UniProtKB/TrEMBL annotation:
Protein source organism: uncultured Rubrobacteraceae bacterium
Superkingdom, taxonomy of origin: Bacteria
Protein name: Uncharacterized protein
Length: 29
């Protein structure tokens, strides 16, 4: 997973899948 996102973002993606960064990137579900 090579994404240009910060560490906390990547962590969220691996944890739930862009759930915490939903309001930031605009990618929910």
């Amino acid at each position: 997973m090579n994404l240009p996102f910060p560490e906390p973002t990547v962590f969220a993606v691996r944890a739930g899948g862009t759930r915490t960064i939903s309001p930031e990137r605009g990618v929910g579900s």
